[in-house]
């Protein structure tokens, strides 16, 4: 998986290359299959382990699949996808109106928080890009559950102690009875892999409701963590009394997941919101949040643009 400031090679997968095509299009305004093939060939020319002819053959074989993936993303995001293919399907162009619209900006943030090195460049302009995803997931899950639903951030962007966060969660839900430690040892920090909680309440205020426990991940290394959040185990360890209905596990990721392995990811991670599903269910977002998201995205895009426009050595 390529991470900026590195670029993909001819052996990159379809989803890596689709992200690269989007970044190249965003930088230049348009990118054709020929542009991408030439660009990746230029990168591989500097790798003595790659045969140039073999690389070009592989690129040409793969790029048709890449453009089909981009078409699928466009459909999955509905009107929120900030790029558009020409009638041949061989050229991708930026859509300025959608790039500047709310859902287009969200898509671009998710694209960059996938391909930016979130260990090194997670914090840009004093804004933590991973915390933005938690706040975004809070809004997405709320919108997904619909009218009369509620949501809150439980993860690291909430600086409260772990016990205080559990107490707050139980108070908001009206069940669970608050924090307790199964071992008797107080957990003072962390989030137990739980980042966001959303629920659909009843007017009677009684226990027993639909609850989502979600984990959020930027970057590309999230797949080994799909089954780390176990709602029943979390509740058994940290919540005084069982909820009326066990929470459902959800996973929110910045990456656009491969449709071939999507069913497997759902089996491991539960209700999966990838980049396209996030954009599909993105509601109106608060102005202050969108300003922070834009600020981080602009800084990350500047880093990406410098890499993409850098002349070959």
Kindly list the characteristics that best describe this protein.
313 residues; alpha+beta; 5-stranded mixed beta sheet; 3-stranded antiparallel beta sheet; 46% helix
Question: What is this entry, summarized?
Answer:
With 313 residues, the protein is α+β, with helices and mostly antiparallel strands.
Could you please describe the fold and organization of this structure?
- Helix 2 crosses helix 3.
- The model is unreliable at 48-52 (pLDDT under 50).
- The protein has 11 helices and 10 strands.
- The strands form 3 sheets. A 5-stranded mixed sheet has the order 6-7-8-9-10, with helices on both faces. Strands 1-3-2 form a 3-stranded antiparallel sheet. A two-stranded antiparallel ribbon has the order 4-5.
- The two termini are 22 Å apart.
- With 313 residues, it is an alpha+beta fold.
The helix tally amounts to 11
Q: What is the CA-based Rg, rounded? A: 21 Å
Instruction: Trace the largest sheet across and list its strands.
Output: 6-7-8-9-10
* Terminal Cα span: 22 Å
Total beta-strand segments:
10
| Beta-strand residue fraction | 5-15%
Secondary structure category: alpha+beta
User: What low-confidence regions span 5 or more consecutive residues with pLDDT below 50?
Assistant: 48-52
Gross geometry: elongated
Q: What multimeric state do the chains show? A: single chain
**N-to-C SSE string, H for helix and E for strand:** HEHHEEHHEEHEHEEHEHEHH
What is the average of the pLDDT values? Answer: 91
Biggest β-sheet description: 5 strands, mixed
Fraction in helix: 40-55%
């Amino acid at each position: 998986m390529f991470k900026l400031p590195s670029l993909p090679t001819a052996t990159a997968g379809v989803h890596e290359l689709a992200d690269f095509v989007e970044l190249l299009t965003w930088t230049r305004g348009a990118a054709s299959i020929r542009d991408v093939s030439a660009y990746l060939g230029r990168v591989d020319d500097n790798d003595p382990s790659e045969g140039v002819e073999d690389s070009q053959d592989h690129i040409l074989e793969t790029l048709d699949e890449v453009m089909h993936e981009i078409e699928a993303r466009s459909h999955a995001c509905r009107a929120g996808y900030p790029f558009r293919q020409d009638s041949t399907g061989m050229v991708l162009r930026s859509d300025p109106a959608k790039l500047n619209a709310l859902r287009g900006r969200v898509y671009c943030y998710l694209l960059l928080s996938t391909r930016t090195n979130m260990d090194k460049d997670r914090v840009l302009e004093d804004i933590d890009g991973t915390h933005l995803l938690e706040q975004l997931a809070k809004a997405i899950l709320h919108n997904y559950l619909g009218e009369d639903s509620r949501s809150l951030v439980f993860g690291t962007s909430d600086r409260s102690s772990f016990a205080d966060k559990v107490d707050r969660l139980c108070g908001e839900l009206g069940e669970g009875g608050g924090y307790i430690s199964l071992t008797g040892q107080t957990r003072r920090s962390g989030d137990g892999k739980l980042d966001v909680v959303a629920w659909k309440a009843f007017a009677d205020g009684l226990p027993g409701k639909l609850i989502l426990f979600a984990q959020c991940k930027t970057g590309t290394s999230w797949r080994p963590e799909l089954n780390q959040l176990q709602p029943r185990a979390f509740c058994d360890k940290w919540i005084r009394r069982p909820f009326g209905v066990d929470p459902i596990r959800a996973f929110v990721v910045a990456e656009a997941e491969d449709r071939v392995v999507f069913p497997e990811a759902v089996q491991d991670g539960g209700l999966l919101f990838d980049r396209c599903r996030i954009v599909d269910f993105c509601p109106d977002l608060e102005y202050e949040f969108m300003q922070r998201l834009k600020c981080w995205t602009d800084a990350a895009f500047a880093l990406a643009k410098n890499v993409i426009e850098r002349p070959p050595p």
